[in-house]
Amino acid sequence: MKSIELLDQIVQVLKETEKKVEDLSSLSSKNKEKVLKMIREAAENFSALKEEVVIDNEKLASFFLKRATKLKNATNNKTVERLGEKEYVKDVRAILRYSKAAPYDFAGYMKYVNRAYKAYLWGLISFFIISGLFPLGFKFTSLLLLIPVLLSLLSLKKRGYTGLMLAFAVTPIPIITGAYAINYGIHAVGNPEEINAVAQAFGTSPGVAQVIIFLFLLLGLIDVVFLGYATYMFYKHRSAFL
User: Fold this and answer.
1) What is the model's pTM?
2) DSSP string, 24-51
């Protein structure tokens, strides 16, 4: 695969960059140590990836090579002084991020992120249904979360880091709501008074009210399990997001 050849070139370029960093006098000792560590880690990541490539993404590999080469060419005292240490370190950090995200484009790891995304979506759908069935306060809360939820879904689809942060910020309330729905369902399912109260609230028979209570319980379980799984997987695969 052409991608493997390009990844090998990236590793070589990063090793050459490492040697150039060691000769820099324009970096503080602290930043030099930090930069060397990041470049070595990036080189190791790209090197390990060569053994896992299943998708021949030549275009992306070429992009990474260009960025690595650009970093190598910028690794001299004159350029670092012109850019400033902060900006140079930022460029190095970008290469490291690319090396961590690369397995999702070359090794097929995106399947894990896609599963998490689907779980996140279905968990949120359950949350909004629960909120629609619960009293007004829950409806108001769900409306407040609607825009952040939509933004997170759009950004996550594009592997945006902002979407990941929004997802982490959004999920606690839906999970708590789901847990409340589970607790309510367990309490109400065998409680004749609660069944009658639900029947009266929805204008249905006690039999239908029991179905509604079971629905609360089921949706609560989907909410908590799916969003819990999605949160865990998003965190585990956070490197996929840039």
Assistant:
1) 0.88
2) -SSS-HHHHHHHHHHHHHHHHHHHHHTT
User: Can you say how many angstroms the Cα of residue 97 is from the centroid of all Cα atoms in its chain?
Assistant: 13
pLDDT, tens digit (0-9, with 9 covering 90-100), for 156-176 = 999 999 999 999 999 999 999
Helix axes 136-157, 172-188, angle to 10 degrees: 130
| 14-72: pLDDT as tens digits | 999 999 999 999 999 899 999 999 999 999 999 999 999 999 999 999 999 999 999 99
* 85 in Cβ contact with 27 (< 8 Å): yes
Pick from 110, 127, 204: nearest CA to 173:
127
Report yes or no: 119 and 200 within 8 Å, Cβ to Cβ. Answer: no
- Output DSSP code: residue 119: H
Say if residues 105 and 57 touch (Cβ distance below 8 Å).
yes
| Backbone φ and ψ of 152, nearest 5° | -65, -40
Tokens linked to 97: 């991020």
- Specify the length of the chain in residues: 242
